[in-house]
Amino acid sequence: MAATLEVADIFRHHGEAFRQTHAGHLGRDERRVMGAITACRTAALGGHVEQCDDCGMSRIAYNSCRNRHCPKCQGSARFQWLAERQAELLPVPYFHVVFTLPAPAGAIAFQNKPIVYAILFRAAAETLTTIAADPRHLGAQVGVTAVLHTWGQTLQHHPHIHCVVPGGGLSLDGTHWIACRPGFFLPVRVLSSLFRRLFLQGLQKAFDAGKLRFFGDLANLAGAAAFTARLDELRRINWVVYAKPPFGSPEQVLTYLGRYTHRVAIANSRLIALTDGKVTFTWKDYRKDGKTKAMTLDADEFIRRFLLHTLPTSFHRIRYYGFLANGDRSDNIALCRRLLTVRPANAAPATDHDSGDHQINTCDFTICPECGGTMRRIAVVPRFFSHQPFRCDTS
To answer: What is the pLDDT of residues 18-61, one digit of tens each?
Structure first.
């Protein structure tokens, strides 16, 4: 059986050439991501030796890099996050709403990631909470789980926010639960209009405060006149807000969320081949009803596209708003449950069936793969430092 191709393999074979070619444009965060993924579950990070008490089989289990951009390190993080969300599920329909930036706004976001991604989060969340609170629509305080994705199927920069929202909310006086209409949450045209206005207001405010920087093809936007003209262009085009049908059951929300919260730009399972300096991978063409196709890129271009989606250090890509906001979340969930007359959830989280990588670090397993016996740690494997060390962190 042939070994599975991984993003790490592409970095090992072509990463150094990429670093040299792009030395003047490769940032610290991108270098750290490359180093972490390359080192993941190798001798570079050390590990331990474990042995089976019954059959004596032994193996080395190397440590994970735990970098949030690594395709191999999301399984355990996903499971823990889903377990924590299980207790917050409510017995109501859940809706999935997606807020997408048009390409000209996405270009500004790419050159100003921390500032503009934060504006995107605030605009999407404020749009949902404002329209939901309007008595003409729902008249309630809703809870929002928002997740930032920055990629499309072909790894191009495509920033958008996935929001999962219960189909209803707390009355504004907190005395009862208000349910949305069956199969309908909020009007997307109204959401789209307010989202565009709030985002552009935030962008203008950031520009006026001198927080935005422009270079390359966007260098002219540093001038007030050109920037104002760009905002005028963005006001004249339609912005896409998409609301999907509600889930079949609240439990399905966890499975669905697991596909989005800890996803990276591309899963190893989508990689087909690395041949003659070219990478081939699968992608879904949603303009052709989601038909699966294959794309081949030069390794240099593949790495460039992958690194487009490196998030700034310490930037939170999962955020909570409304009655799910971190400060009062527990009290608000308890109130929702009382108003809905249900008991707290104690069930285990739903299994995630995402098509991405689900590998858990072998350090987490204690069962022998040969006989089912107990594996015990018998020795520590120190880190191996090569003559060309690279920096690896978990940011």
So the answer is: 999 998 889 999 999 999 999 998 888 888 888 898 898 988 88
Q: Structurally, how many domains does the chain consist of?
A: 1
Residue 58 pairs in a beta bridge with 51
163: containing domain: 88-265+311-340
Which is more confidently placed, 389 or 97? 97
Q: What is the mean pLDDT of residues 127-151?
A: 96
Residue 135: its pLDDT value, please?
A: 95
* φ/ψ bin of 342: left (φ > 0), alpha (ψ from -120 to 50), beta (otherwise): beta
Beta bridge partners of 292: 284
Using CA atoms, how far apart are residues 335 and 354, in angstroms rounded to an integer? Answer: 32
Specify if 360 maps to a domain: no
Residue 361 identity: N
| Gap between the Cα atoms of 334 and 324, Å rounded | 11
Q: What single string gives the DSSP state of each residue in 97-128?
A: EEEE--HHHHHHHHHTHHHHHHHHHHHHHHHH
Rounded to 5 degrees, φ, ψ at 201 are -65, -45
Please list, residue by residue across 250-275, b when 16 or more beta carbons sit within 10 angstroms of its beta carbon and e when fewer do. bbebbbbbbebbbbbbbbbbbbeebe
Which residues 6+ apart lie within 8 Å of 249 measured at CB?
none
pLDDT band of residue 345 (cuts 50, 70, 90) is low
Is 100 within a domain? yes
**What is residue 323's predicted lDDT score, i.e. its pLDDT?**
96
Task: Say how far apart CA 38 and CA 62 lie, in whole Å.
Answer: 13
The span from the CA of 317 to the CA of 261, in Å, is 8
Answer yes or no: is pLDDT of 391 > 60: no
Indicate whether 58 belongs to any domain: no
Q: Does residue 145 form part of some domain?
A: yes
| Global confidence as pTM | 0.85
